[in-house]
Amino acid sequence: MGKFYDEAPIPDVLRRNFDVYERVKQLVINLGTAGEHVRSLEGRNIAGAIIHESGLVYLSGTGTGKLPMNDDPERVKHGQAAGQEAADQHVRTLHWALSCGGEGDLNDVLYTVKALGMVVSTDVDFNSGPAVVNGYSKRWQSIFGGGFGEFAENGLDAGGYAGVHARSAIGGFTGRFSLEPEMIVAIPSALAQAIIRSRGWVFPLPPAIFEQVTAKQGGRG
Description:
The chain is an alpha+beta fold. It has helices at residues 20-26, 34-37, 73-99, 129-144, 189-199, 207-216, and strands at 49-51, 56-59, 111-120, 166-173, 179-186, 202-203.
């Protein structure tokens, strides 16, 4: 596990017993490279992630999918696939937000706190918002652990439950996409404070910090 995770106050029976990156590999999630995903905040007005000193990490919403939702089963499947894509984007952002300065990584995630899934649908009779957002939640639990994930058997994940989260799933939004989930996760407060001391609380990185981090990595690549 991560060096900060090992020292976190979690009951032994609830500790994750697998390498998150092994699941990422099995699920064929491409985390990309630092050159592709570690960017400067210059010219941007919204952060991808904010790290709070308490250990909470807030991931901004990411819109995915090409079609607005209704209750047609095939349309719901499209939304669920979009939810899976959004989860992959979030785990990619989280990986680089935690690791780009060498402080921690995905194995330091303690547990998941809250997901909010906002589903695009102008159909007043739309009832499939939770079903659509299930595509996101299933993928997240597959990555971090949970009885709804792909590695669970009979509703039980032998690897733990760090991916299980409180959630809201609501429809009625407009847009040229399918849904926009956002996520809050918990990391050890010691890791959060180490990151903030080293490079601040925001990702992408403030311009001066970006230059420091990329110089340390040997260039932007």
